[in-house]
Amino acid sequence: MIRWLFNRNPNAQPLGLGGVVKRAFVFFILAILLYQLWIFLHICWWIKFNPSTSAFMEDRLAVIQESKPDAELKYRWVDYAQISNHLKRAVIASEDAKFKDHEGFDWEGIENAFEKNLKKGKIVAGGSTISQQLAKNLFLSSKRTPWRKAEEAVITVMLEAMLSKQRILEIYLNVIEWGDGIFGAEAAARHYYKTSAGKLSSAQAAKLAAMIPNPRFYDQHRSTKYLNRRTATIQSRMRFAELPKD
Question: Considering the entire predicted model, what is its pTM?
Answer without folding.
Answer: 0.86
